Amino acid sequence: MKKSFSGLFVLAVAYYLAARFGMELCSLQPGNVIVVGLPSGIGALGCLLWGWRALPSIYLASCLANAPLWMDGQSLWPIVNVLILAAVEAGQSGWVMRMSRDKIPEGLKDVNDLFKLVVPVALLPTLVCAIALAANMALGGNIPWIQVPSRALSVMLANVLGILIVLPAYWIRKGPSSQADHEKIRMGVYGILLCGTLYSALWDFFPLIFFTIPLLLGLSIQTGLRGELPGQALVFITITAATAKGLGPFAFPDTLHTYIGLVIFIGSTGIAMMSMAILHSQSNAMRDYLQLKVESRTSALKTEMKQRFQLERKANYDDLTGLPNKTLFFDRLNRSVIHSRRNCKRFALCFIGIDEFREIADNPTDKAVDFLLIQFARRLSRCVRESDTVARIGKSEFTVILEDIGFDHDIEIVVEKIIDGLAKPFYLAGDEFEVSLSMGVGVYPDDGSGAEILLTNADTALYAARFRKRNNWLLYGQLPDDQKASSI
């Protein structure tokens, strides 16, 4: 409640100061013609912030600001004029608020919203209220009735300009409040350049005033409405105040020409700069949207690829040891057959079985047995080349595809290396275990011209090796003919 009251008090003070500033420093003489009606924009902004509760503050501030112009102390009519004027101005603020909420509820998102701000939001309420204010002035005897149309037009244009300068600040306030450091630096640099240009133009070289246009354009493009609105307010208020004092390029001897030049310059420049600022905001919003879409799509693709990779790995690799499983092993074996047949080369298939695995598995825990298999797989992989394939195709059964083996002697060297590497003890749950293995070896194309035949023959050699001493291996070609015949 206290916060709302303090805000309404600040609104009344701002409205009063803006009105007195316009009357004292920014009105063209003779005729007391105000070019920019900042109180209209401040009143509409206050209504958007605090709703209908802002109307009493606007009404009171308007009465206080206009009282010196109307009260001559001789009759009650000037007081009535002031009360009517304040009521019309307060009603205009409320009307602009209602039109803003109806026509542009989301703010200035595109150039069409700027058109809505100019015509239905600003122009329509100010036109009706300007006619009422001019008629009120004529009833009070302050202007002749013949001047009512021209005075209504000047009041309407002033109020429209005031609304265009002040009201967009409401949507800036509702938008993101964070500003990047580089944007603040740009606003500061442009502010210094504008101040220097205005000072030089108004008190030294008048044509420099038009250099403010590219500065405002740069401010609009690089900072959007957040930087453009303060910049154009600074330029327009300074030029109007200087013109009222007879300075600047718009200070003509004829008040009418001065007024027309100021209104055209402020109106056209303001709408053009606001359009550029809105386009800048649109382009940034589109850039952020596309960037978000790209990031979202990239994240989705990464997730999809990761899931696909996990599915493929689960389908082709053993969960425990990480070695190729039976599916991938047969694929590699068929590829080796095709490759060796095409290039007239030999390769060996080693079928390895851990001896007495059931007895080993009955002693330690399941985790210890798993650890044994993991260590066994790692040692086996280190005993062969990277180009060879090591796979786990059963609980205690492993296979090795030795590519491009030239002679049986080469097979013997690799097999002995495997047996020596796996003969070292394993440590499970604090105990030492020695694991023995048996191995059967089939050679392509000597022991089989197809993958299944070669695997069957290597399995036959493994079965025969298990009946011999521990850590033994046999080539299928070394088996007696009766054992070979039993595998067919």
Domains (count) = 3
User: What's the helix count?
Assistant: 17
**Cα distance, first to last residue?**
97 Å
Main beta sheet: 5 strands, mixed
Radius of gyration: 45 Å
What strand line-up does the widest sheet have?
4-5-3-8-9
Main structural class: alpha+beta
> Would you identify the CATH architecture of the largest domain?
Orthogonal Bundle
Residue windows where pLDDT falls under 50 for at least 5 positions: none
Oligomer: single chain
Task: Write down the overall geometry.
Answer: rod-shaped
Question: How helix-rich are the residues, as a percent range?
Answer: 55-70%
- In the CATH scheme, the class of the largest domain would be Mainly Alpha
Strand content: 5-15%
Order of helices and strands: HEEHHHHHHHHHHHEHHEEHEEEHEH
Question: Average pLDDT, to the nearest integer?
Answer: 85
CATH topology grouping of the largest domain: Arp2/3 complex 21 kDa subunit ARPC3
How would you characterize this protein structure?
This protein is an alpha+beta fold and 488 residues long. The chain has 3 domains: 1-175, Orthogonal Bundle (Arp2/3 complex 21 kDa subunit ARPC3), CATH 1.10.1760; 179-316, no CATH class; 326-487, Alpha-Beta Plaits (2-Layer Sandwich), CATH 3.30.70. It is 68% helix and 8% strand. The chain has 17 helices and 9 strands. Strands 4-5-3-8-9 form a 5-stranded mixed sheet, with helices on both faces. A two-stranded antiparallel sheet has the order 1-2. The model has no long low-confidence stretch (mean pLDDT 85).
